[in-house]
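Internal tracking record. Fields below are filled automatically when a chain is submitted to the structure queue. Please do not edit lines marked as system-generated. If the sequence contains nonstandard residues, flag them in the REMARKS field before resubmitting.
Queue: standard
Priority: normal
Entity type: single polypeptide chain
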Amino acid sequence: MKLKITPPQLQNIGKAGLFACLVVLIVFLYPSEDKFKYQFEIGKPWSYELITASFDFPIYKSDQQIAKEKAEILKDYTPFYKLDTSVIRIQLGKLYANLKEKGESNPNIPNYIKNKFKKIYSSGIISVDQYNILQTENRQNISCILPNKVTHTVAVEKIYTPRSAYEEIMNDAPNSLKSYDINLYLSENLKFDSLKSEISKNELLKSLSLTSGMIQSGERIIDRGEIVSPSIFLVLNSFKIESEKRKATLQKSSLVVAGEVIMVLGLIILFFLYIYLFRPRIYESFSNLLFILIVILLMVGLASFTIRYTALNYYMVPFAMLPIIIRVFFDSRTALFAHIITMLIIAFMVDNAFKFVLLQIAIGMVAVSSLKDMSQRSQLAQSALYIFLSYLFMYLAFELISEGDINRIDWQFSLYFAISSLLLLLSYVFIYLFEKIFNLVSSVTLVELTNINSDLMMEFSERAPGTFQHSLQVSNLATEAAKKINANSLLVRTGALYHDIGKMRHPEYFIENQNGGTNPLTEFDFEEASKIVINHVTDGIEIAKKSHLPEQIINFISSHHGCSKTKYFYNSYINANPDKKPDEAVFTYPGPIPNNKETAILMMADAVEARSRSLSEYTDKSIDEMVESMINSQIAEGEFKDAPISFRDVELVKSVFKEKIKNIYHNRIKYPELNNKVVAK
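SYSTEM-GENERATED OUTPUT FOLLOWS
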């Protein structure tokens, strides 16, 4: 027996798989365990639980202490230099040859030069750079290595540079020697031996200990509320070093991975159930689910990247972007629920998870509250400001409670919060991209579309002025009704403005655009006239697509008559041909019927507004009966069977329509006319 899977079941499996993929990706993004999960500073209280050593580890000295001890040990260090004894012989030979060539007659000069060169070259000539290094390091002596490998110590003050060697020779030199350029014969014969020096230095530093004690396994380190003293800081830092060494050699354990999977899976299941049970309209759309899950994954990915690969603080990440983006396209509850679930997932990546969750839930609430209806770009900047202030106040409150001293507050966090809030301005770019990628429509776009001064609306008002005025009235009626039953009033308003744009193509066939005279439709038979009227729906869809209107608005155009009939022509055909069965399809709109509250409201508003213009008298009774008759007939015909609208909603919509139409067609005071006879004074 083969297992049969229906298309709805297959869709549910695909959606469950989408959530499962999210779980896998989030677990993959979780930082590895080689990161020490505690942060601490000298003079600040320990804000975590009691810490005890889970293994033996040494207490490492501080960098300053090690540097001090190293300097003390290296006081007796002498760098090694090789003395080249062949240089004096070569340079004397060159100088004697020069003296002979010039016919030097003074017999004392050769002996003088020989004695001076012997004294200078036996002490050694060193480069200026090396001499400056010795002076900087305050070296008193160097170890001089002779060619026979014998080493002896030479005082730095007795070593010559080329300049000091020249001065030594020329101080009491015979006058005739001053005509020679002695600098040409003074070459460095002391060369730094880096290998021998490094070996010597390392031998001395072997006695330096990097630790100053041991902590035994199970030994108490620090408890919550205790101040981190310099000595405890060294212990904590040593614990951190050893922990990271141990964890770097081991992969994340299977138990840790299992725990992460269970935790993330549980939170994602909660979100899945929320969408499935309370937001069926979102659940039914695969693209909507994909969009929300991508936004969640984006926030988790940014947090993971900041924690794992950069030196940036994770509070710089604009986490409030998640509820802002979701709120713009959906509702506040979904945005806040998604934000809380995401922040709980990220909390296991950060240190001090309690503070992180507290701050993020608070700014999520502020983000959702400040964007109840995002209709202007400036609202995003205002929301970013409110979020920054909320961040700052909540952080200060938390620190004052935990620290008890305003001087211990780390004000650098205010910079992190400011950067995060500024990055929220990028939400507008993401909103635009997500609109295009996932075929969504934001409230900002809807507000732009309601601009009656746009090119399309201006053309509409010029070519079909009567229909344009009808659309404005329908828009007003539908908007008020949507507010009454908590539907998307901005979406209804926009859809109502465009629902009849198809009449622009042949406005003369519609009575609201005619200025009296003969109706052109009377020249056609009933079937042809019906087709002409019905075509305004398909024409409207064509115009809307050409004008790049969102699919949500096109849905209003295609469904505002549902699958109803052109009753005027249908009834007229039957009356004229009582013995002939009409072709139902010729007189029926192609549909579809309304599939949400907003399109259902528009269908009701469109029919009621059009019918209200044909009333012979406008009384409370006639208006009430008209509204009841029009909407009840639509219900009877099954036009709202696919729309999630209740009988209570319908009754509320009726009451709004009755009130609004009565206000439009209210009785006015008749102004008295002047008598024919006017008495002049």
